Amino acid sequence: MEKAAVFIDAGHYHYHLFEKWKINYKKLINYFEYRGFNPKFTFYYEGMITKLSYFSRNSEASFNDFKNAKMAKKNYFKILRSFGFTIRSKPVHRIYDHRAETYKFKCNFDVEITIDIVDTIFTKEIDTFIICSGDGDLTKLAKYLKGKGRKVIIVGFKKNTNQTLIDTAHEIIFLEAIKHRIEFV
């Protein structure tokens, strides 16, 4: 089995979940094992709701609703940790979109993913880097990994995985194609 490290940009998946189904991340890791990879490290990146982000989407909610939603997210992270995932989280931020003339909420983890991958490449013996994101900003990182002689697999939604990222990877796995194996039911 190839030693692998998995990096899941969950925020990218939530933002672009066109098909309206949820991914069971434990099943996703099991899928990689089925494919012959031995995931030594699994990093999971997702933003933590803030009062501002929560109430802007749920204006009728109470403060108790917010506290419950935040606790549910913390409990979810705890479950993922019990599966061996390393959780990277930070607050969701509000950003003004000048084109749409409105505020959007975003939590970008490109830098954190890059740091974790660079740390992993220099401290661990990993053959394959599985990047679960379709974000084109990660193309340079994928090229860097290939230049270091590592295999790069990109896992993303067909509708929103950047073409340059697809072209850079050794392999692309579209989530729609493996939905039956990884869907949260």
Question: What does this entry look like structurally?
Answer:
The structure is a single chain. By secondary structure, the protein is of the alpha/beta class. The chain has one domain (2-182): 3-Layer(aba) Sandwich (Rossmann fold). Helices cover 41% and strands 25% of the residues. α7 (163-168) links the parallel β7 (151-156) and β8. It is globular, with a radius of gyration of 17 Å. 28% of the residues are buried.
CATH fold-level assignment: Rossmann fold
Proportion of strand residues:
15-25%
Name of the CATH class: Alpha Beta
Mean pLDDT: 91
| Fourth CATH level, the homologous superfamily | 5'-nuclease
Number of separate domains: 1
Uncertain stretches: none
- Indicate the percent of residues in helices: 40-55%
Rg of Cα set: 17 Å
Regarding quaternary structure, what we see is single chain
Number of helices: 8
Order of neighbouring strands in the sheet with most strands: 3-2-1-6-7-8
How many individual β-strands? 8
Helix/strand order: EHHEHHEEEHEHEHEH
What distinguishing features does this structure have?
Rossmann fold, 8 strands, 185 residues, alpha/beta, 8 helices, globular, two-stranded antiparallel sheet, 6-stranded parallel beta sheet
